[in-house]
Input
Amino acid sequence: IIFSSIISDLETRRRDEEKCFISRDKKAFFGEDIFSEESDVKDKLLSKSRIRGELKKYQCRYISTFDDGLKFITSRA
Output
């Protein structure tokens, strides 16, 4: 649901506008997870790869800390 909301918003933005997605839940979006079954690992990594690809498609940067997000935003103001 969260990611769908992000994509919906990104679709309304100009392509050349700098954008960022800030979430401290790095494991959900970019972290390495360990699963007991190999198929689960492949599915999870594929999912994360798709997330990175979707964000990149909209010129959106993933930022994993609020401090870094604030730095990103204030450096563009």
Remarks:
- The first strand starts at residue 19 and ends at 22.
